[in-house]
Amino acid sequence: GLITAYLSGLLLERFSNQIVFEITAIFPFIVCLAAWLIAEEPVSKNELLSQQDQSLVKQQIKQVWKAIKQKSIFLPTAFVFLWQATPNGDSAFFYFATNELGFEPEFLGRVRLVTSVAALLGVLIYQKFLKNVSFRNILGWSVVISSALGMTTLLLVTHTNRLLGIDDHWFSLGDSLILTVAGQIAFLPILVLSARLCPKGIEATLFALLMSIVNLANLLSHELGSLLTHWLGVTETNFNNLWLLITITNLSTLLPLPLVKWLPNNDPQAEELEEQENISYVGEVYEGKALGTVTDDALIPDVIPEFITNKKK
């Protein structure tokens, strides 16, 4: 990914568009050829979907629908959808970078290389320092920080960076690095939360559905961004209102913030396991004892509230 990120721009600068497309088409073709080497057992007619398999599929569909209707799954999914569906002005900014700032394909490839490295850096930071932070806190702060950092693009759009003595190329590289790290840190909790929300038995199906919802939100985000770009009169040559577009799109990401309580404060799977362990633990403590028995077992404070046991002492 790091190599292709840079070569994509370099090849476009050295060769025609047609040759670049032909080169990129070679790699999927190689994958198709490699698919013939995969060993698998042929499926006979007797192994096709039986009545039992069909009923199993229907049962799983019912389980998925039942899971989606639960507030513990529906509300976090709705928050993520609303956040990811807010409009963005990436397309307009791309034309600004190429037509106004004059960035060449080779430099755009260099920017993609930097963002690829930044994405890996974001993964490392999340894994090292943030993986134990509650979903509500990390996603809530991600909304605020991402919106604030997105405003730094205004410095490039208004050419304020030149007044500060920072070249357009260097500012673009640094800005892309910071925004990508922040974006990756903000997106990873979405993946983790989606995986943790999936109940047993339908993990793969529900996770695929949640990812489809996220992709739908991203599609809606681009469409809303395009509509907003049209309303503001921003084109591939007219960037007078680009600053307003960037301001609106960044501020719009704050709209779902009042709904942050829809997110679980703790790990949903951990809470479920803890609840199951507590139930089994209470059973073990009182096993073999008559109902209403008073015991001085040291384990009792974990079952009876502390203020009761302390009052006795």
TrEMBL record:
Main location: membrane
NCBIfam families in alphabetical order: fbt (TIGR00788)
Protein name: Biopterin transport-related protein BT1
Organism per entry: Crocosphaera watsonii WH 0003
Residue ranges crossing the lipid bilayer per the database entry: 19-39, 107-126, 138-157, 177-197, 204-222, 242-260
Gene3D superfamilies, A to Z: MFS general substrate transporter like domains
UniProt cross-references to CDD domains, sorted A to Z: MFS_FBT
Family named by the database record: Belongs to the major facilitator superfamily. Folate-biopterin transporter (TC 2.A.71) family.
Subcellular location: Membrane
The entry's keywords: Membrane, Transmembrane, Transmembrane helix, Transport
Statement: the UniProt record of this protein carries the keyword Membrane: yes
UniProt GO cellular component terms: membrane
Coiled coil segments of this chain: none
Membrane topology: Multi-pass membrane protein
Lineage of the organism: Bacteria, Bacillati, Cyanobacteriota, Cyanophyceae, Oscillatoriophycideae
